[in-house]
Amino acid sequence: MLMSWLRRWLGGGAEADPVTASEDYDGFEIQATPQREGDTWRVAGRVIWHLDSGVLQYDFVRADSFPSADNATTMTLAKGRQLIDERGSDLFNDHPGQ
């Protein structure tokens, strides 16, 4: 666990968390990638915006955690919809390379 986090933080040998569910919402794609932390699952995912010029991605991790990956997946999709409703394309304003 600690080594996995450390590798991810340092950027070496980082493995992407598996996508447990995805949905299209209001012109964006939401991917749920809950992170296992001991006996719980943390809400984590990404919002993807497919443009003619390329793909932009906004990763998010929340403090919310649940006892099952299914519950974390459901909440991740809900949080993704909330981010899109609140910020839409502004999620990507500070995106490097935009």
What descriptors fit this protein?
98 residues; alpha+beta; 2 helices; 5 strands; 39% strand
List the helices and strands and how they pair.
Blueprint: H1 2-10, E1 21-25, E2 28-32, E3 35-37, E4 40-51, E5 54-66, H2 69-87
Antiparallel strand pairs: 1-2, 2-4, 3-4, 4-5
Structural class: alpha+beta
Main sheet, how many strands, which sense, barrel? Answer: 5 strands, antiparallel
Q: Look up the CATH topology.
A: Double Stranded RNA Binding Domain
Percent of residues in beta strands?
A: 35-45%
What is the terminal separation in angstroms? Answer: 33 Å
Structure description:
The chain has 98 residues and is of the alpha+beta class. The protein has one domain: Double Stranded RNA Binding Domain. Helix content is 29%, strand content 39%. The chain contains two helices and five strands, in the order H-E-E-E-E-E-H. Strands 1, 2, 3, 4 and 5 form a five-stranded antiparallel beta sheet that branches. The longest helix has 19 residues, at 69-87. The chain is elongated and about 40 Å long. The termini are far apart.
What's the short version?
This protein has 98 residues and is of the alpha+beta class. It has two helices and five strands; from the N terminus they run αβββββα.
